Amino acid sequence: MAQTMGSDFKKEGACRGLSNLPRPSRKFVNRNQEIEDIKKHLLPHPENDCSCVLVHGAVGMGKTATAIKAANEIRDNDDNTAVVYINCNVVNSCDDLAVKISQQIYDFPLNEFTAEIKRRLISEKDLLIILLLDKFQSLDPLHRNEEANMNPEITRIDQTEELKVKKFITEIITASTKVKLLVTSSVWACFPETCQQTVRLDPLEESASFELLKNTFNRQLDVEIAYKIAGFCDGIPLALISLARPSTRSCGNDDQRQPRGKIQEIHTNS
């Protein structure tokens, strides 16, 4: 098992040098209760039988950002926890998933990836391993293939591989006492016999929307205008960020950062 070198090992968490887990966004606001719920369900406790947490909500609610922040907080405070981050958009098969998992835990080659990584995870005794499967809905062939029709860079996946992935993951989670599953998905996902808990993300409250706008816009923003934008976006984080993030327009040899259309429109009409 790989370990992070140096005096910061305990603070940094296990296998940080191998993990693909991103750091939390500096723009992140709110979701404190949801993050605490995720940690409560995932952290070991004699009365906690949960081995799977589903972060569920509509597109744009911040499921990925919330799960990433919770996973970082768990890992940063426990040197016996490793987090494996998998973006399911780029998982093409069960074997591919096994390779991606092994690369974030073991710094030595494995032979039969799928069978061996399954055996090693089930027999793990020392580390708590959290498998963060982000955008799990993209493993649905219908969802993935619709995206592939619009973007030729996205690889298609068939139903056989989807079923293999779910079987592979479920068998590991149900057989191991040291592996937990954290899943984000905009569609419902169920993992039987895992005492699955669901953390649902709803739209942000008005005050949180305002704070997110301020963090993203990075410049002085009139309070009245900010609340108009927040109302227009209905508390959906992705919509707020998309409208507040400045765009770059080329003007001769200089690039000028300009507010996007809706913010500019509200400025103009105010």
TrEMBL record:
Residue ranges of domain Orc1-like AAA ATPase in the record? 27-122
Q: Where are the stretches annotated Disordered?
A: 1-21, 249-270
Q: Which InterPro entries match?
A: AAA_16, ORC1/CDC6, P-loop_NTPase
Q: What Gene3D superfamilies would the database entry show?
A: P-loop containing nucleotide triphosphate hydrolases (3.40.50.300)
User: Which Pfam family is one of this chain's hits?
Assistant: AAA_16
* Composition bias, Basic and acidic residues: 252-270
The organism's superkingdom is given as: Eukaryota
Q: What is this protein called?
A: Orc1-like AAA ATPase domain-containing protein
Organism of origin: Porites lobata
